[in-house]
Write a structure and sequence with these properties.
210 residues, mainly alpha, Tetracycline Repressor, domain 2, two-stranded parallel ribbon
């Protein structure tokens, strides 16, 4: 008789040491920091149920049923709906581009990452108690592999964004500071937005997040 080898039990503390970030993380802070967790926040005057809903919603034109639906979703459902979207907002095949405030952003560029990073800050600062808990937290940020997608697929991308935010909070950055930064970004978008017909990036990519 052939005996099957016993499967090794899954242990999140061993497989993901440090400050584990995931929808099923062992701490409430780790769950909160997850893109998949339902953590309603506001960004550019629009309410989103989760960061994953915001991230995936960029695949659809502003105001479209797809983006509106994704703004209300979280977890694997947001990921599933986002992955079923057209490769490009105009349905053509080529380098994917996302729409933001009526202009286009090339996928996997610094401009794209800047917007994801700023939206993550909006979420964290929308919950002052969690921002304070994050400030006093310890351990290297570790994001579960199953929660990576698109520009955030590469190991270290989400971790870097979260670690930057933690350091900003520790250095005294407040929600008021963030709101001022968002106002600058809004002014930048309004002033320098390029025609979506040209297919050019929305931002010049030189300065990053204000």
């Amino acid at each position: 008789m052939t005996h099957m080898a016993k499967a090794t039990p899954y242990n999140i503390a061993i497989d993901y040491p440090g400050l584990v970030v995931g929808e099923d993380a062992p701490t409430s802070l780790g769950q909160f920091l997850s893109n998949f967790t339902a953590t309603p926040f506001e960004f550019f005057n629009i309410e989103y149920t989760s960061m994953e809903g915001f991230h995936q919603g960029l695949r659809y034109p502003s105001g479209s049923p797809g983006r509106i639906e994704l703004a209300s979703l979280s977890g694997v459902e947001a990921q599933r709906v986002g992955n079923s979207s057209p490769a490009n907002i105009d349905g053509t095949v080529g380098i994917p581009m996302f729409e933001f405030w009526g202009g286009r952003i090339f996928n996997r560029t610094r401009d794209h990452l800047d917007i994801i990073s700023l939206a993550t800050r909006a979420k964290v600062f929308f919950f002052p108690d969690k921002a304070e808990e994050f400030r006093t937290s310890s351990g290297t940020v570790r994001v579960k592999d199953s929660e990576r997608s698109g520009i955030l697929t590469k190991v270290g991308v989400i971790e870097s964004i979260l670690e930057e935010i933690r350091q900003e909070i520790r250095s005294g950055k407040t929600p008021d500071n963030f709101l001022r930064a968002q106002a600058v970004m809004e002014a930048l978008v309004s002033t320098y937005l390029r025609s979506s017909i040209t297919g050019e990036p929305v931002f010049n990519g030189a300065g990053g997040i204000p």
